[in-house]
Amino acid sequence: MRLLIQLRKMSAANVPLSALRLKYMEKKQAFLEENIRVKEPITLFKEWMNQALQTEEIIEPNAASLATVGSDGCPSNRFVLLKDISDEGFTFFTNYGSRKAQNIASNPNVAMTLYWCPLRRSIRIEGVAEKIPQEDSLKYFHERPRASQIGALASEQSSRIPSRKHLDEIEKKIKQELGDDKAVPLPNWGGYLIRPKLIEFWQGQTDRLHDRIVFRKYSGVEKEIDNVLVHPAENGWVYERLAP
Ligand SMILES: Cc1cc2nc3c(=O)[nH]c(=O)nc-3n(C[C@H](O)[C@H](O)[C@H](O)COP(=O)(O)O)c2cc1C
Hints:
Pfam families: PNP_phzG_C, PNPOx_N. Pathway: Cofactor metabolism; pyridoxal 5'-phosphate salvage; pyridoxal 5'-phosphate from pyridoxine 5'-phosphate: step 1/1; Cofactor metabolism; pyridoxal 5'-phosphate salvage; pyridoxal 5'-phosphate from pyridoxamine 5'-phosphate: step 1/1. Homodimer. InterPro entries: Pyridox_Oxase, Pyridox_Oxase_CS, Pyridox_Oxase_N, Pyridoxamine_oxidase_dimer_C, Split_barrel_FMN-bd. It is a single chain. Helix 5 (about 145-155) crosses helix 6. Strands 1-2-3-6-5-4 form a six-stranded antiparallel beta barrel. It has helices spanning about 1-10, 40-55, 100-105, 135-145, 145-155, 165-180, and strands spanning about 65-70, 75-85, 90-95, 110-115, 120-130, 190-205, 210-215, 230, 235-240. The chain has a single domain, classed as Pnp Oxidase, Chain A (Roll), CATH 2.30.110.10. A hairpin with a 4-residue loop joins strand 8 and strand 9. It is built from six helices and nine strands. The chain is globular and about 65 Å long. With about 240 residues, it is of the alpha+beta class.
């Protein structure tokens, strides 16, 4: 690993990206079905997240790429921070007037991907997003540092602005109006819950025969479960292994 970093530093300007090779997991560290303690993806997600939280090199383990689709049928994605994981799904917070929010309003189908490089692991989530109750958004909003609350109020996320200075002036005006003690009013901002339909757990192997185990909401068609390609899981899920 150190050698790889040195090489990259030495030839930073002209290192061919095609030559970059990171060592992934060895055969004996393969991610196998028998390693899954509870055959249920939310529990497994929490276990993987806990391992990511305990891995020092991963400085923002809850950073996740969120993909949405616009009314024109075109996808776009951006990072958000995952703020809650429950049996119902995955919650992130954002501006309700932003581009992503407009996308979700016209098409609530979303996808999210996390990548934890030091663990050679990635998780993909596909599901349907819905706004969380306003009182829950309000509660979380006021738990954030005051500067972040003011920042959220000052920024009509995704709208065009003339300059950085423009934003600073709005922030200054809000600070003057609120003083030090007035509560920051909730802007057009809040949480989305992604109710998952599919969650894939990926672990990279050095021989490129990566492990991919996908949990899918069970469609209810019994003959689907053959215990060869499709296996029963808990809480209305089935799981299957995909070729890498
Ligand atoms: C690591 C990281 C975390 C982010 N977390 C959030 C977040 O939780 N909510 C959010 O609205 N934007 C977040 N952003 C900014 C978004 O990536 C994006 O710039 C913004 O939400 C506007 O996206 P949109 O115009 O597609 O709606 C984050 C960016 C990064 C790089």
